[in-house]
């Protein structure tokens, strides 16, 4: 037990030459802040017994200071009796602010952060000291105290994924029973910040997992048999894959699990519903109702879908352990970064397999579609040409959001995140357009010039003609296949799209 | 002597403290919403009109009481309804709006005419001219009259304040002032008045419940006020903010501090959370760069560090303490008063604690307007990020911030110098800056130093004034006791060599 924190501190401070504050220690070892402060103290003491001066400590002193410096400073001002302090910023802690209790010495609570060599001097300033503790340990005396702030920044980035409402108790942060976070953002903001952090280093590797997963998801909804075969195929595929990508033959199960969960995640903000149970448990249960599930983090309240018995129980359990799930999800996200290379190896193969399997399952599914709550343009098996395939995938990604929106308006805010993830799969490009540019010339006249400008566009703006016609064709044929009422729903569900295509289409 | 933390780990479990909770409501008085409020086409004249119309009746009453039997020689002071009705040599009193004619005050028309010739002069610290060229006028809908007299030297007046003056017009056509009357403090609501009103409106049972919720005597609840965090994202300004953060979460320091901090039921940030960021790229370079279009945001033109740091600061505190965030002069929102709330989208981590847009109840994290009004534990709070007071400072002699704050309350106008020298939204159908109810606590952020006092009004009003120092310069925050309204300063210090 003793060696636990000593090991950590030795590793961090002595070996890796880092600064460790009590907050970092309490988070790293999941202990109360008071305990962390004592650990720092004890470690500092032990090390200095072994080798004096080997470690540097920064202390925090808290207590009451008496401030009597006021009167002199006041005279230099314009003689105001009740101005106890010069208006210029004071230097360090010598000059003293206070209340307007005139020249009387003012008692003020002061917290001072101080290097060990100045500790006694700092203590001398205090009327009474209520507590002293080690704030941080450093391998050498810090030249600039601001270095300590970098540790706080580090805590913020490293422990960003921790749920403060769960872990703060451990660290001894003052609890608040009244805290309320808007359910709209709570999970989303976490994901977002994670993505932001990631996107700094690497582009989001989204498209492939989405395609593969959504497709198999649809296959499953339509036909349990096709689903199980399909998912078992992908499963076996992913089991075969790791040896190809190398190293861990021992952890065959793990990478595929990670990968699948991460793609679930992406889908969750593309608003496609994960059929997470089947994939996660890798039992390939008939997942007829799964499409209605929201992802684990947002599925707290109601689940509109009639689930098969075992699934319902499972989801119940999951709801209860939601926080754990969140935690896991974050881990997956993190691990997923590491596993990216592996995935890249796996993905194409799976994709091929899945798309090969897809038309079959689709055509099988055809009669079933009518009973599905979500009309599915993809169910039109004959249209499966390569170019349209991609279109469909996008539609598929969009599609499942409709039932959710209808039943739970609350989630509609998620919509704004849609472009974030989809954008990976979107067609992007640059095109040359003529732009009018107005400038003022030397004599003050306005001159309008037309010049060619390269502009980037994405698919939700105007897309090139062939693509657009292909898309509308799909929509219409899907509509025809799905029948009157549903056809309307399909087009109504994607408002304005037809119009904008007409507008930009060739005349 | 507080050295219990200087020992070996004791391995015992420590129970975390539970924070006290105060009741809170936040007024939406200064929010601009709806299309009709986003229009900047209209003139400012309406604001002065409303101000005068709102304050005239009570001022008339005060003046009539005091001056109705005022005599000089045989002449009794008459009330004149319009400024233009004043006749030379007649003893009379009038009510109108003050206008300060100061040569050094920025002047829009002059600015425009000079625009093409010279670069703008640096902003002045004071508008007062050294050789007494400043003129004071009183005006109403009818016209304008110059005010003279020694009594004017003894009283603080700025453009936009509404006053009653008594005197006579002299042979030069100026009005010799004998006495001046201010509207004085507005009616002050009783503590818990809002809650009581609500309770009786809804039903009797909730009334009882609410009363039982109320602190009887000593609850010890407190509110922390801070302003001018001034986060720039540059090196070297974060350590004290970290200390503040750790203090408020109860982590830093010992058990007694933690005990005290757990009583702080809310943090109010009064403006300037973001500091002035030095602009590095020179103008020419920026102009040429504009022609190059970049996808997404241009990292060279936009520095996300300040808001990220602010977001982290807030997000660390929010699980433990609710926060009211007022913007200030430097914050990334509108510049015109009333400044609109900092948009939650800029604070991706903290926004989880905001309420849904346009929700009735304020969120746990209440990003709100500047100025702001609200009730905490039944006390009416009114505060701003400092601009109204900092602008008044330019009109008057000296640097007595408390005096200026007191004057604002006695003038009953929260931002009198708007729209003259303080940018503000051109309200068309109301004048929200008129103070219709006096607060119990009036705080102003970003003042040179911490100051406090209590002022009293004619009908037992009593207002606690708090001038908040800039945290970045002083490292000070103010803890206000909600039982006694006594403020206390806590300072954070970093002792370098």
Based on the model shown, name its key terms.
heterodimer; A: 507 residues; alpha+beta; 50s Ribosomal Protein L17, Chain: A; 3 domains; two-stranded antiparallel sheet; 20 helices; 6 strands; elongated; B: 497 residues; alpha/beta; Purple Acid Phosphatase, chain A, domain 2; OB fold (Dihydrolipoamide Acetyltransferase, E2P); six-stranded mixed beta sheet; 22% helix; 22% strand
In short:
The complex is a heterodimer of chains A (507) and B (497). With 507 residues, chain A is of the alpha+beta class.
Explain this structure to me?
The complex is a heterodimer of chains A (507) and B (497). Chain A is of the alpha+beta class. Chain A has 3 domains: 2-68 and 105-171, 50s Ribosomal Protein L17, Chain: A, CATH 3.90.1030; 190-422, no CATH class; 428-504, no CATH class. Chain A contains 20 helices and 6 strands. Chain A has helices spanning 2-15, 22-29, 33-50, 70-76, 119-124, 147-158, 164-171, 186-201, 207-222, 224-245, 253-270, 276-281, 309-320, 322-369, 386-398, 401-407, 418-422, 465-482, 484-493, 497-504, and strands at residues 20-21, 56-67, 106-115, 126-138, 428-440, 446-458. A 4-stranded antiparallel β-sheet of chain A has the order 1-4-2-3. Chain A has a two-stranded antiparallel sheet with strand order 5-6. In chain A, a hairpin with a 5-residue loop joins strand 5 and strand 6. In chain A, helix 9 (207-222) runs antiparallel to helix 10 (224-245) and helix 10 crosses helix 14. The longest helix of chain A has 48 residues, at 322-369. Chain A is elongated and about 80 Å long. Chain A starts with a helix and ends with a helix. The relative contact order of chain A is 0.08. Chain B is α/β, with parallel strands linked by helices. Chain B folds into 2 domains: 24-39 and 213-277 and 301-491, Purple Acid Phosphatase, chain A, domain 2 (4-Layer Sandwich), CATH 3.60.21.50; 68-181, OB fold (Dihydrolipoamide Acetyltransferase, E2P) (Beta Barrel). Chain B is built from 11 helices and 20 strands. Chain B has helices at residues 45-67, 108-114, 193-202, 204-213, 239-249, 255-261, 283-290, 305-317, 387-393, 401-411, 471-474; strands at 24-26, 71-72, 75-76, 78-79, 92-101, 135-139, 144-148, 162-169, 175-181, 222-226, 264-270, 323-326, 365-367, 372-376, 379-384, 441-447, 451-456, 462-469, 476-481, 487-495. In chain B, a hairpin with a 2-residue loop joins strand 14 and strand 15. In chain B, helix 3 (193-202) packs antiparallel against helix 4 (204-213). Residues 203-213 of chain B have low confidence and may be disordered. Classes of the chains: A alpha+beta (507), B alpha/beta (497). Strand 3 (106-115) of chain A pairs parallel with strand 20 of chain B.
